[in-house]
Design a protein that fits this description.
Order of helices and strands of chain B: EHHEHEHEH
Number of helices of chain A: 15
Number of domains of chain B: 1
CATH architecture of the largest domain in chain A: Alpha-Beta Barrel
Structural class of chain B: alpha/beta
CATH superfamily of the largest domain in chain A: Aldolase class I
Strand order of the largest sheet of chain A: 8-15-14-13-12-11-10-9
Radius of gyration of chain B: 14 Å
Largest sheet of chain A: 8 strands, parallel
Shape of chain A: globular
Strand content of chain A: 5-15%
Bound molecules: iron/sulfur cluster
Helix content of chain B: 25-40%
CATH topology of the largest domain in chain A: TIM Barrel
CATH class of chain B: Alpha Beta
Shape of chain B: globular
Strand content of chain B: 15-25%
Helix content of chain A: 25-40%
Strand order of the largest sheet of chain B: 2-1-3-4
Number of strands of chain B: 4
Largest interface: A-B, 22 and 27 residues
Distance between the termini of chain A: 56 Å
Radius of gyration of chain A: 25 Å
Oligomer: heterodimer
Chain lengths: 460, 130
């Protein structure tokens, strides 16, 4: 058995004050000058540590306060109040919610999974990924065994074409060499970012993060720069120009390359592989209602791996878009029907915001995922999209130190990896490859609704 | 618009209760003025400490505005009255060190104000020019 994949984490402090759910408003005027002010009794010494962050005009008060309300209740003149912080409500949008963003921040800073302690307080169904539950019937065992290494659970996946059967000649030698394959210790690669402030720090942080995790980051050919050369073994170069412009020296060091979907993508793949037979080619295509047809045609033509990309909200491109999990299910089942599913690696991306989305999308038929926005959020992004409008980034992401960024990314991925192990453990599955397409181990709200309610009101 | 203010940088501290859509509303003016303007939404203008105003000067702003809700309209009762006292105190502090007190200015919006934060800001900038 290969050694257990372990991600080393270390606390990486925030550069900016985080936006907390509630804020303290404390007046000085009207103060009765009590012999002992309630502020002195704060267990967390919030008032003593008080300071102002001038980059944001934010008090440290809010991010240190633990919401015990002792001071609020104790002040005889009611000069201290706590209220919902309006900036918190403004974080992100309907999909990238404040809860999701602050959960990602926590994991990136601490390298640990957030524990609410109060049980699950959310809804049991909702749009998108929330309308799906996984079967955790094996949860009777300690689910943290996987994390602590008492049980070996593999999260390794491969990118490349699989050999369906070995063929031997008369002398007993293999007729064909097996196609090249790239093994990744966890089913996540880093995608191109939909938006970000300029600055090489962000790219380098993602590359450094990918290298230390043993995974890959996609980099546009047009954005490739000499300081990225040392990361080539962990880069998926996305060809957004001419293949002939990529130097053979670079191509030799690459293991994965991504080309856009088009009518000549198979021809381009063939040409690349003639010169560099060890390279695995991924074809990148937008997720659309036609995806399953296009994917099965590409498989017949010899594609090795396909990267299906939905938008930031996990929606395919269409007038009536389907959510990524529904479309992936349809594609997966279509390929299973045709008997070709195992020939190809499917990478799905767009709208992956939490660890549980990784497991859920794999159940829906993806071999692995590509992640984008959460990596930026790991580096304190607030999903305000000001950079997209060309306005200053509130957390000055263009100035980050790439090593700090990489450790934040590593911490987040460690949290996700542990959650994946927990889910696999609770489902009694020892290998993430086996999770793929295991729809029988999940329940889908739409199906349940149909099964249970469609017969109601009908006479039997 | 671009020449406005000839490179004077401004910090705008404002009570965010003024404009529920402040985040979206100020983007256009921020794009136009780039580094010459910075907005600091406050949960309540009463939260402003003289230190905030001093720090805003220190971090490079030439002029600091504090925009508050109309008198009597504060969500936290008397926040804007307190802001008034604090800005007066801050003014006296900078005067002592030889800076013009006009570098701090309190803008009390009038009752029934329905202007967005960018409209208020543009009014202020226009007034500066005249
Ligand atoms: S609510 Fe509790 S933790 Fe927060 S400042 Fe008051 S006493 Fe301290
Ligand atoms: S915080 Fe806003 S401006 Fe900065 S990277 Fe994130 S979305 Fe872009």
């Amino acid at each position: 058995m290969p050694p257990k994949y372990h991600i080393h984490t270390s606390r990486a402090e925030n550069r900016f004050q985080k936006i907390t759910k509630s804020g303290v408003i404390a007046w000085d005027e009207g103060c009765l000058k009590c012999a002992r002010c309630v502020k002195k009794d704060c267990v967390y010494k919030v008032y003593e540590k008080r300071g102002i962050d001038t980059r944001q005009m934010l008090e440290s008060l809010d991010s240190v306060c633990m919401d015990c309300f002792r001071c609020v209740q104790g002040c005889p003149n009611k000069l201290i109040q706590k209220g919902i912080n309006p900036s918190y409500k403004e974080l992100g949008d309907h999909y990238w919610t404040a809860e999701i963003i602050s959960g990602l921040w926590y994991q990136a800073e601490a390298g640990r999974i957030p524990v609410s302690g109060g049980g699950y307080g959310g809804a049991f169904s909702g749009p998108g990924f929330d309308a799906m539950w996984t079967d955790m019937s094996e949860i009777v065992r300690p689910t943290r065994d996987g994390i602590h290494g008492r049980e070996y659970i593999s999260t390794t996946v491969d990118i490349g074409r699989k050999v369906m059967a070995l063929e031997f000649d008369q002398a007993g030698a293999l007729v064909n060499d097996p196609p090249p394959n790239v093994e990744i210790p966890q089913p996540i690669i880093f995608d191109l970012l939909p938006w970000s402030p300029p600055g090489k720090g962000i790219n380098l942080a993602m590359l450094e993060g990918a290298r230390s995790l043993g995974t890959f980051a996609i980099v546009r050919q047009s954005e490739f720069s000499p300081e990225m050369e040392e990361y080539l073994p962990n880069i998926v170069l996305y060809v957004d120009g001419n293949v002939s412009d990529i130097s053979p020296k670079i191509l030799r060091k690459l293991r994965l390359i991504e080309i856009p979907y088009g009518k000549d993508s198979i021809a381009a793949q063939k040409k690349l592989k003639e010169e560099h037979p060890g390279l695995v080619t991924i074809i990148r295509m937008e997720l659309t209602p036609d995806s399953s047809g296009n994917v099965s045609r590409l498989i017949a033509e010899g594609a090795e791996a396909i990267h299906l990309v939905a938008d930031e909200y996990g929606l395919e491109k269409s007038d009536k878009p389907l959510f990524i999990k529904e479309r992936m299910r349809e594609i997966h089942l279509h390929l299973v029907d045709k008997g070709v599913r195992d020939r190809i690696t499917l990478i799905a991306g767009g709208g992956i915001a939490m660890a549980e989305h990784v497991a859920k999308l794999i159940i829906c038929g993806a071999d692995m995922l590509s992640v984008d926005i959460p990596l930026l959020v790991a580096m304190e992004c607030r999903v305000c999209r000001r950079c997209k409008d060309g306005i200053s980034c509130p957390v000055e992401l263009e100035t980050i130190d790439h090593l700090w960024g990489a450790s934040r990314i590593r911490n987040l991925m460690a949290g996700w990896h542990n959650q994946l192990l927990e889910i696999l453990g609770a489902m009694g599955i020892r290998e993430v490859r086996r999770l793929r397409g295991e729809m029988g181990r999940a329940m889908f709200f739409e199906n349940l609704e149909k099964d249970i309610f469609s017969t109601l009101g009908k006479r039997g | 618009m671009d020449q406005k203010g000839l490179g004077i940088t401004r910090a705008i501290l404002f009570c965010r209760q003024l404009d529920p859509n402040q985040d979206a509303n100020r983007r256009a003016i921020e794009r136009e003025m780039g580094a010459r303007i910075r907005f600091f939404p406050l949960p309540c203008s009463g939260r402003v400490d003289p230190l905030y105003l001093m720090r805003a000067l220190e971090s490079g702003a030439d002029k600091v505005y504090l925009i508050t809700c109309p008198e009597g309209a504060c969500r936290y009762r008397e926040g804007n009255l307190r802001a008034k006292k604090r800005i007066a105190y801050a003014k006296s502090l900078i005067e002592e060190i030889g800076l013009e007190p006009e570098r701090f200015e309190l803008i009390l919006t009038s009752a029934g104000n329905h202007k967005t934060i960018d409209e208020i800001t543009r009014d202020i900038l226009a007034r500066e020019e005249s």
